[in-house]
From TrEMBL:
One of the record's GO cellular component terms: axonemal dynein complex
GO BP annotations, alphabetical order: microtubule-based movement
Source taxon at top rank: Eukaryota
Annotated GO MF terms: dynein intermediate chain binding; dynein light intermediate chain binding
Domain spans labelled Dynein heavy chain tail: 5-167
UniProt-recorded name of the protein: DYH5 protein
Source organism: Zapornia atra (Henderson crake)
């Protein structure tokens, strides 16, 4: 029982740390008005990397041994652990999926950032079709909150490109 108590303390520390990571990942991001859609892709790539590292750690043999010992001891901390393990898996899958869908927009990043307004407008119909495809098929990116955020940064990029074009002309 003494070993079980020590292991439960360790798992409770992990639970606290994982909850903190999950809470921080769900907080609203404040972005500057001049960021473009490539920043959204970078955000999700960073998040994917973080959650994949966390998943790797959770799946490590050291952690598995501790969880096995607590299962044998019928520890009550395992209920919380299993819930968090599931939440981390969901967050990792969401990040991976969002990166995959946002990569479909990558071919527009250059034209949005560096083209003249006329050239940029040639890309808008296919850009909007791609955004629509993301909305229709992505299991995680199909919320009004995510779409509003994405459209806002795309629009900001277009405005900044036009502003730069006007100031140079």
């Amino acid at each position: 029982t003494e070993v079980t108590e020590k292991l439960e303390e360790v798992v409770m520390i992990w639970i606290k740390q994982i909850r903190q990571v999950l809470v921080e990942s769900e907080q609203m991001r404040r972005e500057a008005d001049d960021i473009g859609p490539s920043a959204e892709l970078e955000h999700w790539k960073t998040r994917m990397s973080s959650f994949n590292s966390l998943l790797d750690e959770i799946k490590s043999s050291r952690v598995k041994k501790i969880i096995s010992i607590l299962q044998a001891a019928r520890s009550k901390t395992l209920k919380q652990w299993k819930e968090l393990d599931g939440n981390i898996t969901i967050a990792a899958n969401e990040a991976k999926d969002n990166v995959r869908y946002l990569y479909t927009l990558e071919r527009f990043f250059g034209p949005l950032a560096k083209a003249s307004p006329v050239t940029m407008m040639e890309h808008v119909p296919s850009l909007m079709n791609t955004v629509c495809m993301i909305y229709m098929t992505s299991p995680y990116y199909n919320t009004s909150e995510r779409m509003t955020s994405l459209l806002l940064i795309i629009t900001n990029q277009m405005i900044n490109t036009c502003r730069t074009y006007l100031c140079e002309g």
